[in-house]
Design goal:
5 helices; seven-stranded mixed sheet; phage-related protein like fold; four-stranded mixed sheet; 15 strands; single chain
Amino acid sequence: MRGTVDVDSDIVGERKSYNQFGIVDDEEITTRFGDTVDMGRQDFKRWISLKPYHRTDWYEEWDEQLLGNIALPKSETLESHRMAFGRRVDKVVIAALTDDATTGEDGTETTALPASQIVAVNYTGGTPANTNLTLEKLIKAKSILGKNEVTGFDSEDQKEIIFVYTQDQLDNLLENVDEIKNSDYTQVKALIAGEVSNFLGMRFVRTELLDVASDIRSCFAYVKSAIKLGVGQEMTTRMSIRNDKSDALQIRSKWRLGATRMLETEVVKVLCDETA
């Protein structure tokens, strides 16, 4: 999910603040040589706090053949560390989408995602009833972003909408689209087959790490500028011999990450009932 958010790799220390900018309006000039006045722009801050993570594996000293293999840059051990790093990035981004954002001048306040940015689990466009992912929910999510002026009509200003989901949502979407009467069936089927990644003008990104509580899965529609990912340290790996562990080979990778939601208006949570 790293490629779906803004990334700041220039963080020194434990945390960093960012100025928050939303939509602003201009004013008509009605007098000649009039005074220049401050239009009242307010500075709001969002904060990223970095946390350290690591992955460590040991190998016995006597396994010379394995020792030779894992020294290679593309070894299975190092690749597993890279995958762990990638999953942690996803978890940090998902937490920024889900959790209250740390705000305020000194980072002591929090801001939750408002109810207006949530597509209810029972939203159908008609009589309320719990559902998994449906076309109606996708259209509603896109509508909320459009009404917030997150996406523009000028193609040069158009922000790509990302939709993150799990396989369960995609399977359900296919099962509930009418194969005969609905032309969207072919597009959804192509999504499952991996032939396309876009549907309804949104780029679909699958992850099985999305939060689920009482069978209600939280999926999200958002644009890249909605989330700021802070990377205090990229993945770095060190191999060393542990004399205190009978000369075992230690392979240890570490990294520091954090993220925050920059604008609530650029994120929509879509609740999906996986039992429906």
